[in-house]
């Protein structure tokens, strides 16, 4: 079964990463967290340390979806990783699904040309990066444009995850998870 992967770098936004993983697993989506560090341990922007499921070297190209939490310097750490950038570029070139939240659309996706010609959103203050990457910035919580999902920040983690569930499964699955968490 093809998997979905959430990339974790030191400084990641905990809510965006962990809420997304939690809700995807509730929906029965096969998702793993991926450390880009030399170890499985990854420390979030607010000091929460987690053990990722796998190392970047063990993450295959051609996933069901790659997901990027934001947070700083987490998003910059992802953008500075050549292997992550190669995987994202290949995924996009092959029409694969990508999701990014908070600073990640502007800091990671835009410089790679992934959102060029797309509608996208990001954390307030990062709009110039999105526009410089050729995207049309939308002041919305979550934007779905073709194979790319973007969201604006921590408070949008749940709608972001539900949009991912809808993209990977269907609306009924997203509705079931939303109902299960009393949304």
From TrEMBL:
PANTHER family: PARKINSON DISEASE PROTEIN 7 HOMOLOG, PROTEIN/NUCLEIC ACID DEGLYCASE DJ-1-RELATED. InterPro entries: Class_I_gatase-like, DJ-1, DJ-1/PfpI, Prot/Nucl_acid_deglycase. Pfam families: DJ-1_PfpI. It comes from the Bacteria. GO terms for cellular component: cytoplasm. CDD domains: GATase1_DJ-1. It comes from Duncaniella dubosii. Residues 3-166 form the DJ-1/PfpI domain. This is DJ-1 family protein. Coiled coil: none annotated.
């Amino acid at each position: 079964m093809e998997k979905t992967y959430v990339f974790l770098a030191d400084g990641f936004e905990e809510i965006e990463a962990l809420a997304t993983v939690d809700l995807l697993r509730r929906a029965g989506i096969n998702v793993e967290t991926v450390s880009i560090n030399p170890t499985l341990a990854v420390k979030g922007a607010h000091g929460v340390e987690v053990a990722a499921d796998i190392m970047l070297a063990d993450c295959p190209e051609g996933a069901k979806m790659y997901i990027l939490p934001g947070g700083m310097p987490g998003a910059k750490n992802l953008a500075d990783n050549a292997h992550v950038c190669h995987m994202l570029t290949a995924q996009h070139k092959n029409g694969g699904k990508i999701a990014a939240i908070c600073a990640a659309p502007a800091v990671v996706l835009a410089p790679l040309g992934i959102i060029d010609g797309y509608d996208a959103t990001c954390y307030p203050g990062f709009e110039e990066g999105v526009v410089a990457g050729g995207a049309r910035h939308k002041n919305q919580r979550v934007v779905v444009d073709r194979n790319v999902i973007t969201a604006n920040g921590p408070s949008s983690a749940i709608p972001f995850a539900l949009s991912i569930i809808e993209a990977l499964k269907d609306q009924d699955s997203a509705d079931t998870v939303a109902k299960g968490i009393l949304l």
